[in-house]
Structure formats: C-alpha cells, structure tokens
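Hey, can you fold this?
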Amino acid sequence: MWYSAYVLGALFGVSELGLSLFKRSKGDASSKDRSSLALIWTVIGVALFFAFGLSRQGPSLPASQVLYPLGVALTLGGIALRWFAILWLGRWFTVNVAIAADQPLVDTGPYRFVRHPSYTGALLAFLGLGLCIGHWLSLAIIMLPALAVFGWRIHVEEAVLAEAFGPRWAAYAARTKRLLPGIY
C-alpha cells in the first residue's frame, strides 16, 4: 500500500511543476515574492525526500489500514481543492506573489470561505501523503516544514494584498479565516 504514496506524490509533483512552469506573473504585474516560491520548492522537496526515504524505518501509525484510505482521500481531495481554487482565480493566479494593475480582489467561490484555499488544498494533500506513507516520522517530516513555509508564504502574500487593496482587503480578512473556515 505505501508504494501508492509514491504515485500520489508524483501526481501532485507533476501538477505543481506544471503550475511553476506555466503560471508565473506576466509583464504587467510586479513580483513581490520575496523568494517564498523558491523556499517552498526547496523545503518541501527536501522534506518529501526524507519522508519517503525514512518511510520504511520510522514507527508505523496505529490503524494504518484505516488511515491509508483516509490519506488517499485527503491527497486527492487536497489536489482537487487546490486546482478548484486556482481555476476559480483564472488568469489572476500566479505561482509567484504578484498583483496585476487591473486585478480584482476575489472573494467568491472557495475564497468566500477562506483566504487561501489553494494552500489549504496543498496542505491537505501533504497530510494525505504522510498518512499514506504510514509512519509518524514521515508524517512529521512532511507536515512541520510544509506548515512553516506556507505560513511564511501567507505572511508575504497578505502583506502584498493589504498594500494593493487597502480597506477592501482588511474587510475581507476580517470576515474570513486564512486556511480553515471558522478556525484559522
């Protein structure tokens, strides 16, 4: 069963590679990424390398027979949520933090519930991968760095959005949570 985590991880990786290659900001938007994209790729890449490398050596999760299907569902559901959020933004989505001159503040669709649904989806996918691998150490090696780099990315992105949209951003941020509806 654990080997299908490699397949799910590869599916997620190819999806993210495609985004990185084809969804960068255009000439009319200035990038304010602060190297957060490079940091995400580096940290997540290293974390996944070690998580999969240690997958057969770490302590197994209890009830891994039950957690495995949950992990598959979370991985696929997380990827689906991420892509739904990306497609909802359409041409406004970029992998680097940038605001186009004519960009609107999107607060509909999945953005009605949380400010960063694509990051929620990515984090759910990483949680699912960790559960599919089935070891505590691998789960921790994936999730702790992912939470840290996405936390930094959200900080960078929200500063840019606050600067670009001012009071409209403040009102939106006051009525929505970052990643989990009603929680955080």
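Oh, and this one too while you're at it.
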Amino acid sequence: MHFDQRTQQALRDVGLETDDLRAASEAVVEAVAEDAAALEDFFDEHDTVYSDMEMAHSSAEYPEHTVEYADITTHADEMRGWLRFDTWGVSIEDGRLLDDGSVELTLGSTIDDRVRFAPDRETLR
C-alpha cells in the first residue's frame, strides 16, 4: 500500500477499513499508470507540440518543439520519465491530462517548472 502511515491512520479514523485502504491504493496506482500511458500516447501522436515555457533562444510566445519520444514510468503513485525533443531532453514528473487537450508536466532541473504542452498554439492562448 502506498499511503504513508499517517494517511492510513487518518483514513482509518474516518472509518475506512484495511480492505478499503487497499482498494483505494490500487485505484490510485491504476490511475497513475493510465495517465502515464495517455501522456506517452499524447507525445507519440504529435510530431510537434507547443508549450507555455519561456525559452531564452526563442522569441515565440508559445515555442514549438519537435518530439522524439516520451518515456514515462510509474511506481505506486509516482510518475517519472524523460521527454526527448529533437535537440534536447528533460526529466519529467507528475504529468496530467487537461480537459482542453493539452498536458501538463513538471520538467526537471534544466527547466525546473510546471509546463503545459498542446498540439497547437491556439489551445495555449
């Protein structure tokens, strides 16, 4: 079970039994795995994406990125991976799909920020 002991105790205090905790934990693990697969699919489906990231070498309001691949792994409720563009790559964490068709990821130490990616600039406006 991935809930830490304090969280487990708090959930027990509000009436959840061990089986309920286990079921909730398994549901979280499954949701994270599904989101990771959907994020990989997003980057597989789009050869080019646009972001809301500020880049020193780009004057575009929403820079364009040529996608090579996204490799995302999960462990319990954690999501980590690598996003590779044509000329650079970055570690990623905690991705999520947004209702407008874009995705949001935390990019690693070279960027160190939460960034949205979309298949077109209009979605980011």
